[in-house]
Amino acid sequence: MTRPNIVLFFPDQHRGDTMGCDGNPVVETPNLDRLADSGVLFERCYTSSPLCMPARASLITGLPVNAHGVWGNNLVEADRHGPSHVRSVRDAGYRTAIIGKTHLYANHRNDGHTRDHAHKLRDWGYQDIHELRDVVPSARCSCY
Length: 144
Prior knowledge:
6% strand; 2 domains; mainly alpha
């Protein structure tokens, strides 16, 4: 039996009811719908923090905010040598990758989300790193 692929989407500011597979009659998300139909769709998923960095640190470490100590954005980093589900998956033989903005480390003035911090992401267990450097242009739409 082949092992399943593990794909975890962790978007910023994506409401749970904004996918066609979740019954939204207006939003068209055919690719996400197809993935949801052939995989696992979490119906009750709650964030550990309303802020980006603490929530991402909890997702990676499996620890609540009070245990990993990342209380805000860009203030302090979680211990990247501590618990990491990414490292556990990698050690089980999976190839690990991250694509997009990670926001797992404190940014310093003017460095953004860049390859300059790839070594930190490797410490978390990521092997392939494709992090965005700048703002990605997107289409504008109006729902009104």
